[in-house]
Amino acid sequence: TKATGRVRLTHYHPELVKISLRAGDLIRFSKVRLKHPRNFRNPGAFDYRGFLKTRGIVATGSISKNSSIEKLGTRPLPFYKSLQSSLRIGILETLEAEFPGQQGALLKAMLLGQKNHLSDAVKEAYIATGLSHLMAVSGLHIGFVAWSAFVIFWPLTFYVLSKYRPEWAQSGAARKIAAFLSIVPVLFYLLLVLPKITALRAGFMVLAFLFAILVNRERDLFNTLLIAAFLILMWNPGAVLDVSFQLSFAAMAGILIIVRYFPSSEDDPIDRMGEQPWYRRFLIHLPFEELEKLSSPEKWSLSLKRYFTASLFISLAVYASTLPFLIFHFNQVSLIGLFLNLIMIPLASILIPLALVALSLGAIIPALGWLLSFPLHALLECFLTIPQFFAAFPYASIYLPSPPRGWILLYTFVLAGGIWLARQKLVSTQDKTGKFQPVALMKAGLILASLGVITLMVWPRIAERESDLLQVSILDVGQGDSIFIEFPNRETMVLDGGGFYRNSLDVGKMVVASFLWNRGIGHIDYLAATHSDQDHISGLESLADLFSIGHFLDGFSNLTDSRIDRLKQKVLSKQAVSIALKPGVPLNIGEVRLTALHPGPEFILQTVANKKTKVGNELSLVLRLDYREFSMLFTGDIGKPTEKYLIQQALPLKADFLKSPHHGSRYSNSSAFIRAVNPQAVIFSSGYLNWMQHPHPEVVERYKNAGTNIWRTDLNGSIHIATDGLNHRIRNYSPDFRGRDDGSPGKSETIITQHALNDGAGTARKPTL
């Protein structure tokens, strides 16, 4: 069957590829299993499928062997694609030759958006310092190109016109011609970076602004921005959900508000080029006569002050306008980024145009390109050193849980009210007629709203109270386990954190943390690992870095395992308290009892000759959770030998809900164990189409024969259980508004079970769910 479409293929060992591949090559990939992109179906999860869809990618796959790649030939490309390929290859070859190592990798990221060669340390430093936008081709980069070209062309055209067409120069034609000529380098840069969607959007915005100059519409830059957004959404309606679209337009709107509305309406510098810039009103105003009396160093000093004042206000505008999107999408805010951008953005405005000029000229005149590369080396070293230096500061950036939805309304009120107040010239509470003015009332309202914004941003769950509900969520983390428990007293617990082979994805940060932040959680009261397998403990190591932890539950005090010990030390270093779980001794968390059933001392003596042996599957921590009449059993990755031992010990295994042992392996989940637990429902936590066939069909059939309701994270997404101790409800998270990930059946039904529990008067209690 023939099929067409764009596919993303990942090679796990790209350094071993010996075939030189270029645009236009016809390639055959063998032994590749293509899959439709899938999301982790948890509340707050990143819409990876939608992200790829906006880029036209319909399937993904992976390659691990070079034998899977076969070059069949080459087909001719359209002229513009051929030109694009030649230019890009030439620039990349020059970059690799002139700028080896991380300098070249950083320049590739800043010029072309290619970040795959950057070290993790550099990437993390740029994120922590709020400078990651410099490594994504955006309006800032294309704006640098347009601005540099405009600054060069404007005086040149003015000089030529004043010499040959003075009347044109006096009429302001030089600006229009400069704007028109600036379109050429912008289009050239777009040719290099396309087909990146972000670059196309940013290029369209910059071209729209240049066009506004051509048609004398600089006064209506807001209208130009709205037209650009409208046309982009006409071309791609899904772009409105793209975070880069939201950030780009929010940042531009913030800048335009500062530039357009802070000057007084009768003295708008945008209307008349060459007048006093708006930001000089915030400094000491010097008339032209006094300015002429200043010495050259004093003029330079004043110019620098004005430049950095303008940069400060523009940075504030961008920071304020993009803050809600950064919190809701990334849950990370850089505290140092506001000030560091004042240094790095001006340097970037020099680096990016200079690098493009050096690389372009270097392709024609190598000696000239080599000469221009000297200052680039110094600039690139600054861009490598400065972010990493400041990222090492404590609280350079902080992680915040997602605030409640109403927070955005409060924040918008504070932002709009602050702008309104800043434009007022009078702040008295009464005018000359004795009438009450709204200024004082607005100020009081803004103070209260600002306190609300800060409070809900730091403590989003401050208004929540204790309830009767115990909530358990088995998250969709692929092939692995991660369980979140919220107790009725609002304390929280994370049992296991998932993890991918070779840490190809940081499941703790990208999946589990996203779920917690979405729920407004910034602190974990109890953290525990069932054992030290990668798919259980890896995510916990990330959570220990991202959240404050109250207690570490240690069920292996009689064992030594390097990975569990490392996790424990990391958690304890953050002032957490270690609680040793002893088999059979319950830990009371409010009304909830959490009891460790395994591993006990006898089992350890029987199975572990050397106590330094790794805590493997059979030594998994088995926990029983009891709340009033409700019970649930968590079993880690225990196998049939451990199941048999637990049954022989006559431990309290019977439970309403069971988290299946070892993801549904056929070497676990024995019929005897299923009978001993006798659960109403079993939850399998496993990856979609995993190679181990978890849950195994034989196991699924055993539970069906026992009359157990079956829930699977690979097919149903995350599973959520809520109970008041008498009635319990189970349902899955199914984001239907994004469309199904595949053709698998999803569950949306609810199971409610009411225990036959009477109060003192003999009347059945009513459900409270």
TrEMBL record:
Residue ranges spanning the membrane: these are 140-161, 173-192, 198-215, 222-239, 245-263, 307-330, 342-371, 378-400, 406-423, 444-462
The ComEC/Rec2-related protein domain covers 110-422
Return the InterPro entries for the record. Answer: ComA-like_MBL (IPR035681), ComEC_N (IPR004477), Competence_ComEC/Rec2 (IPR004797), Competence_DNA_uptake (IPR052159), DUF4131 (IPR025405), Metallo-B-lactamas (IPR001279), RibonucZ/Hydroxyglut_hydro (IPR036866)
Query: What sequence ranges are listed for the domain Metallo-beta-lactamase?
Result: 476-682
Query: Per the database record, which ranges form the DUF4131 domain?
Result: 2-67
Keywords in alphabetical order: Cell membrane, Membrane, Transmembrane, Transmembrane helix
Question: Which Gene3D superfamilies does the entry mention?
Answer: Ribonuclease Z/Hydroxyacylglutathione hydrolase-like
Task: List this protein's GO terms for biological process.
Answer: establishment of competence for transformation
* Membrane-protein topology: Multi-pass membrane protein
Give the record's GO CC terms. plasma membrane
List the residue ranges forming a coiled coil, or say none.
none
**Where located?**
Cell membrane
This one is known as: DNA internalization-related competence protein ComEC/Rec2
